Amino acid sequence: MLALVAGVAVWWQQEHAYYEPVAFVPGQEIRLMPIAGDTPEVIVAENVSGIDADSSPLRFRACFTTPLSQAMLTETYRLYDKPTPLVGPSWFSCYDAGEITRALESGTALAFLSEHLPEYGIDRVVAVLPDGRAFAWHQMNECGSAHYEERALPDGCPPPPAKGKN
Question: Fewer CB within 10 Å of terminal CB in the chain, N or C?
């Protein structure tokens, strides 16, 4: 019986605890990094819904639609190398990491850098399907992976924060 209670508690913490709806600023919900420049630009995003948690910078997930074509997006914004959609809670049903991964692997979806987040080595990534459905998540980049695994940083990484800080 104790194992069952513990199992339910662990499941509840992974699926429900900590998550809160994201309060997006209307007209500024989703941004992408332009090919020329280092300041993310707002894109047209509709029906935006998202979740996040203070317990980890990697818990952010969002779903939305955009009328912008993949062709226009690739001519204007930076593609993201090695996108890896992270699994979200099952109750946030608009976001399916398996579907997004399959679409990225087949080339149906394209992934873009949204922005580098204040937490060291974490990026916001956006994937867009041809039908305009789109998804966003936070992902550790190569600098973050090397830093947190205490490996040498790849060339071009900014200096990491002092020990004890993000």
Answer: N
